[in-house]
Amino acid sequence: MININFVPDDYVQNSESRRTNLISLVLLMVVMVALGGSFMIIKVRQRACNAQEKLVNTRLNQMQENIKQFEELQTKRKAMMKTALTTTELLEPVPRSVLLASLTNSLPRGVSLLRLNLVQKEPNRAGQVATSKYQAAQAEKAAAQSRVSQEQLLETHIDIGGVAPSDLQVAAYIERLGNSTLLDNVALVESKEHKTEDGTFRQFKLTAMLRKNVHLTKEDIERIRAGVNAIWNF
To answer: pTM for the full model?
Structure first.
């Protein structure tokens, strides 16, 4: 049987053309929607990146501020340490390590130190009684004009304890300490004899005072620490 198509060819071509245009339009809309979605995603990500960048910048500025404050604190700390060291040098013109080196380097052979105690006291003014009101006023005026700090008026008393083979070594040690430029008023408190299985020895106690207005140079400190006086042998 023969099929006869009664639809004109122009209509068929127009239908196919409309269908093609419709498909193209749908595809174009899909592409546009995809592009719009991609653009929106990019904008959202860009905003998120900007927010994160602002947060990072804020933290960075805060860290820089903290570093600046830390550096300022370190500068203040160094200044305070320098001031403290200067004050210590003013209050303690003779370092204790130098004093200890002088005491140990002056030891005769066979003598050992067992105890060392340093105490700062105010000078005893009980015996300094003015004979008249005029003298008392002059003393107060002189004290006010001198402007000497209370710390500089303190006296450093030293208690020394040790052992020696005999009193001869103790006497030699007292003589060496008396000739020291750091000490004054070196005196023997007691010296007792002790017997052991290995022999006898003397346990002694000394007192001394640190000289006032002692100013040691760098060479003096190096000489004392080097133990120049240690070459003495008894």
So the answer is: 0.48
